[in-house]
Specification:
The protein contains three helices and 17 strands. The protein has one domain (2-18, 32-265). By secondary structure, it is mainly beta. The strands form five sheets. A five-stranded antiparallel sheet has the order 1-3-15-5-6. A four-stranded antiparallel sheet has the order 13-14-4-17. A four-stranded antiparallel sheet has the order 9-8-7-10, with no helix packed on it. A hairpin with a 2-residue loop joins strand 11 (200-203) and strand 12.
Length: 266
């Protein structure tokens, strides 16, 4: 863990590039107030449900409004992500999921420094924060999702390892026509990141999504208290990304999907 934190210090060491209080004052935002910059979920059973969204901008506004009320925003299946900032550089923050006993759907956290000071997460590679399953994780994993041709249908996917599968349509629980995000106009899109081994098992007819030791959002790990997972860094960062890190189905319960319910500065 110390090695990764040292890497973070090296990546974020040029403090002069980080946003300052003058930028915060110009934006009219209060210190500690989070802002959603991007929301690109993978397909999933909660996507498009209760949403009247047709553009990426509307999706961002919808996600920010829900999280401001500590309501969940689903990231869908593997690779779905959300990006937030606080309007200034932060070293310590917490992210809230909605995990509970038997329901852990881990999201990996990535950070970035605003090297060009333009307020956008476009400064190169994301830095993945330390987590317990790094030794068994697959890096640079990619999944491509394909728009269904008919409503009430599963979403098919392929990955860069030669596998294929689908996000199941679970009509018993979520009846919206499509689980493929309606504001994504392309007929397919690819998401990439780090893949964790699934800890979901079926026991006596019930699915148990077991917890991972530490380092994840929406997971009852040793670093999670009342669904908040804390992250304390040695150097400040500007942008925070949470991404679903498992590609797995739980039978009739559907896909494993990270949910985010809050961001706060510590």
């Amino acid at each position: 863990m110390d090695k990764k934190l040292l890497l973070l210090m090296a990546a974020a060491g040029f403090l002069s590039s980080c946003s300052d209080n003058s930028e915060l004052e110009e934006s009219g935002r209060q210190r500690g107030q989070f802002h959603i910059l991007e929301y690109t979920p993978a397909p999933g059973q909660f996507i498009n449900e209760g949403m009247d969204v047709s553009t990426p901008e509307e999706a961002i506004a919808w996600a920010e409004e829900r999280i401001s009320q500590e309501k969940y925003v689903s990231l869908g299946g593997f690779g779905g992500y959300i990006i937030a900032d606080f309007g200034h550089s932060v070293s310590n923050f917490a992210i809230k999921g909605n995990s509970f006993a038997g329901s852990n759907e881990p999201g990996i956290v990535y950070v970035m420094v605003d090297a060009n000071s333009n307020g956008l997460p476009d400064d190169g590679a994301w830095l993945e924060l330390p987590h317990s399953e790094e030794a068994d994780a697959i890096t640079d994993y990619q999944v491509t999702y394909y728009r269904p041709l008919e409503p009430n249908s599963p979403v098919k996917w392929t990955d860069n390892l030669g596998n294929q599968g689908e996000i199941a349509y679970v009509a018993a629980f979520h009846k919206q026509d499509y689980y493929y995000p309606e504001w994504i106009t392309a007929d397919s899109y690819t998401l990439s990141g780090t893949l964790l081994p699934s800890l979901s098992v079926e026991e006596n007819g019930r699915w148990n999504h077991k917890p991972y030791p530490w380092g994840y959002v929406d997971n009852n790990g040793s670093d999670t208290d009342k669904q908040w997972t804390e992250f304390r860094l040695d150097s400040p960062v500007d942008f925070i990304k949470v991404q679903t890190a498992v590609n797995a189905q739980a039978g009739s319960l559907g896909e494993i999907s990270t949910e985010v319910c809050g961001f706060k500065e510590l």
